[in-house]
């Protein structure tokens, strides 16, 4: 009887340990590497995977957009409307990535440059800084929110 009770208690404790959320195991280094790889893909011209309800505010927008909203663009001499199509290039230097204790959220702070050609002639290199929030969905990191601002002001 004592042996059966002991085996039951060990089994119940093991089951509780495996299912209790504070015992979730994740690899911070692998998660950070996965986020860095997504940023590198963006710099190579591929879109970031994003949550359907993501929030995005870029320097080229008048206000933030949520989900599939159409942005209201700011118009100025370096505005999207004055850029030569397919000349935009991003280069990102990640300064910090922090993965939450839960392993399903992270934030990233980066500096970078945005380069593009203007229809009127000339080339622009615009330094910027970005704060992005990442969310893991079905085991994959996706952008949940981003705020990016250029270092120049017009």
Summarize this structure briefly:
The protein is α+β, with helices and mostly antiparallel strands and 154 residues long. Helices cover 22% and strands 39% of the residues.
Describe this structure in words.
- This protein has helices at residues 2-19, 28-43; strands spanning 50-57, 65-66, 89-99, 105-117, 123-137, 140-150.
- With 154 residues, the protein is of the alpha+beta class.
- The chain is elongated, with a radius of gyration of 22 Å.
- The chain has a single domain, classed as Nuclear Transport Factor 2, Chain: A, CATH 3.10.450.
- The relative contact order is 0.17.
- It has two helices and six strands; from the N terminus they run H-H-E-E-E-E-E-E.
- It has a six-stranded mixed beta sheet.
- Helices cover 22% and strands 39% of the residues.
- The longest helix is centred in the first third of the chain and has 18 residues, at 2-19.
Sheet with the most strands, sense and barrel status? 6 strands, mixed
Shape: elongated
Instruction: Give the low-pLDDT segments.
Output: 14-20
CATH classification class: Alpha Beta
The overall pLDDT average reads 87
Helical fraction:
10-25%
End-to-end Cα distance, whole Å, is: 81 Å
- Looking at the chains present, what oligomeric state does this protein adopt? single chain
The CATH architecture: Roll
DSSP strand tally: 6
**CATH-derived topology:** Nuclear Transport Factor 2, Chain: A
How large is the radius of gyration?
A: 22 Å
């Amino acid at each position: 009887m004592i042996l059966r009770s002991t085996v039951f208690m060990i089994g119940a404790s093991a089951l509780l340990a495996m299912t209790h959320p504070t015992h979730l195991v994740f690899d911070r280094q692998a998660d950070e590497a996965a986020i860095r790889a997504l940023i590198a893909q963006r710099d190579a011209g591929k879109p970031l995977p994003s949550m359907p309800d993501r929030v995005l505010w870029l320097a080229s927008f008048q206000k933030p957009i949520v989900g599939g909203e159409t942005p209201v663009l700011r118009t100025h001499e370096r505005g999207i409307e004055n850029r030569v199509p397919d000349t935009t290039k991003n280069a990102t230097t990640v300064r910090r990535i922090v993965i939450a204790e839960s392993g399903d959220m992270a934030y990233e702070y980066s500096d970078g440059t945005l380069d593009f050609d203007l229809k009127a002639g000339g080339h622009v290199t615009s330094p910027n800084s970005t704060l992005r929030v990442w969310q893991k969905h079905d085991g994959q990191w996706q952008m949940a929110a981003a705020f990016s601002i250029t270092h120049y002001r017009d």
